[in-house]
Amino acid sequence: MALGFLSRPKDCYLVETVRTERFKLVNCSWLQAVRTTLPWANDPDTLHALMYESTSYSRLHWAAQLDVPDGRNLFFHAIVTKDGNETIGAHRIRLNRSGTANMGIALTDKTWWGKGVFEEVRGGLMDHFSQSPRVVRFAGRVLARNVSSVYNYKKLGFRFIGHDCKSWRSPLTGELMDTMYFECLAEDWRASRGLEPG
Ligand SMILES: CC(C)(COP(=O)(O)OP(=O)(O)OC[C@H]1O[C@@H](n2cnc3c(N)ncnc32)[C@H](O)[C@@H]1OP(=O)(O)O)[C@@H](O)C(=O)NCCC(=O)NCCS
After folding, report:
1. Which residue is closest in CA terms to ligand 1's atom 42?
2. Distance 114 CA to ligand 1 centre (A)
């Protein structure tokens, strides 16, 4: 049913705010998610890295195309600095019915690029999500030439599943690009961090 998200209960554990050393990762409502991700809508590089189909969106179009985070299967976390309370980006998790959590992240405040935010934020969210019995596996797909993301997936201990060649057409250049798939089982993640199942 199209409006099913209105009636499904939120996952009280998964919507909790997650705290890392430098950040609060705050679960967003739809409106908060629109506000937090709006800078992406006019940033061709970010849209490209996240594999959107267009190079820019109007505010209205952006709001209309952003799926509603329901606190159960779709989560947007605002990345908020503890020191200063500034929102510097957002992280998205889509949890499917098989327990796979597909993830994406973008930092809108580019002064934070190159400062290990990906590793800290992704690690904090995986600590939290891996302790839910609803989460079995983490997964990500990135453009093969997104070097810092590929590096981060490997650094976090994700397993490289494989390439698919010429599978995504860039809306910027029309070029067909390769993508890479990564996965990490929740149980392996917990073991690597010394965490117990929830
Ligand atoms: C992806 C993104 C979140 C990166 O986050 P970040 O926290 O700035 O990542 P960092 O640059 O700190 O970490 C990247 C790592 O890759 C390394 N790296 C970057 N470019 C590299 C290169 N050409 N060769 C080798 N290593 C490289 C860096 O040295 C760093 O390693 P370190 O932590 O050991 O120093 C940010 O660039 C972004 O928002 N990009 C747009 C959206 C996007 O690409 N999202 C990812 C798709 S899910």
Report:
1. 106
2. 6
- Strands laid side by side in the 176-185 sheet: 18-19, 23-27, 74-81, 87-95, 100-107, 137-143, 176-185, 159-169
Domain positions in the chain are: 14-193
Whether 115 is in the pocket of ligand 1, judged by its Cβ within 6 Å, is: yes
CB-count burial class (<10 Å; 0-12, 13-18, 19+) for 101: buried
Return the pLDDT at 1.
Answer: 43
Tell me what the mean pLDDT of segment 114-124 comes to: 97
Is the minimum distance from the CB of 151 to ligand 1 under 6 angstroms?
yes
Take residue 63 and report the two structure tokens written for it.
């709001």
Fold of 14-193: Aminopeptidase (3.40.630)
pLDDT digits (tens, 9 = 90+) for 137-175: 999 999 999 999 999 999 999 999 999 999 999 998 999
How high is the pLDDT of residue 4? Answer: 53
DSSP one-letter code for 97? T
